[in-house]
Amino acid sequence: MSVKAKKHLGQHFLTDETIAEKIADSLSFKGYKHVLEIGPGMGVLTKYLLKKDIKTHVIEIDTESVEYLKNNYLNLADRVIEQDFLKFDLTTVFNDEPFAIIGNFPYNISTQIVFKTLEMRNQIPEFSGMFQKEVAQRICSKEGSKVYGILSVLTQAFYDAEYLFTVPPTVFNPPPKVESGVLVLKRKENFDLPCNEKLFFKVVKQAFQQRRKTLRNSLKTFNLSDNLKANTIFDKRPEQLSVTAFLQLTQLIETDETD
Fold it and tell me: What are the DSSP calls for 82-129, one per residue?
């Protein structure tokens, strides 16, 4: 594939075999029989997944890469999905079976990949992959961090997130202008929210839209009662709240709205 084509896809292809193997080893491969690799390119990560005791599927939008994979990985040929991950209905492949997600994700859609994973969390017990370093750090960061935000809270409400290691630009073709980071998400044993999910998402997003303000100011649109607004939690700024605290805040708002 030409460099021009790769840049068009927003993807930088990994050329370091050792790092590819480390990414493949980041999943446990327990509790599910399928793994889906997003954006395999020429298969540098795929080859290590095929060595695992797991049924590997790949989803790739670029026709040149699809042709290469089918011709060079014959045992994978019938599990190459030529589709856009963000638009494709994965239940047509996996039905209601669980599967893991892995990949060297295109930077320009990496956040959207995480959000689609959250939507399908009932079927995705594990998720591992490479992002732009800042995005990976944001997903895994805890309260009090400058990069802690919407993506951190929403992801960690359902998954335990761990930042694994940093990858330099020199191991890609073409080299990106930034460092990359590899993370792993493992779904929590109890990932049902103790509050209304839509309201939780709305509270988190609204709070961080004005992250420098206290919650009393940033959540004004919720028309909260004076009694609730007197709660000391509203004196805090969003980055001071843990995921658990955001869940508790949502419960308070939910109760207040029904009273």
Answer: -S-TTTS-THHHHTT--EEEEEE--GGGHHHHHHHHHHTTTT-SEEEE
Looking at the fold, whether 81 and 139 belong to one and the same domain comes out as yes
142 is a domain residue: yes
Phi, psi dihedral angles at 95 (to 5 degrees): 55, -125
Q: Taking a C-beta distance cutoff of 8 angstroms, is the pair 106, 37 a contact?
A: no
pLDDT digits (tens, 9 = 90+) for 96-129: 999 999 999 988 999 999 999 999 999 999 999 9
Phi-psi map region of 201: left, alpha, beta (phi>0 left; psi -120 to 50 alpha): alpha
Crossing angle of helices 110-119 and 133-140, in 10° steps, is: 30
Any idea what the CATH number is for the domain that residue 212 is in?
1.10.8.100
Question: Is residue 103 in a domain?
Answer: yes
Helix (H, G, I), strand (E, B) or coil at 151: helix
- Do the Cβ atoms of 188 and 159 come closer than 8 Å? yes
Entry pTM: 0.92
Residue count (the chain) = 259
Domain total in the chain: 2
Is the sign of the CA dihedral 147, 149, 152, 157 positive or negative?
positive
pLDDT digits (tens, 9 = 90+) for 218-227: 999 998 999 9
As a whole number of angstroms, the distance between CA 36 and CA 49 comes to 10
Give the start-end residues of each E strand in 139-213: 159-167, 172-173, 180-187
User: Exposed, middle or buried by CB within 10 Å (0-12, 13-18, 19+), for 256?
Assistant: middle
Instruction: Quickly tell me which residue has 């709070």 as its tokens.
Output: 207
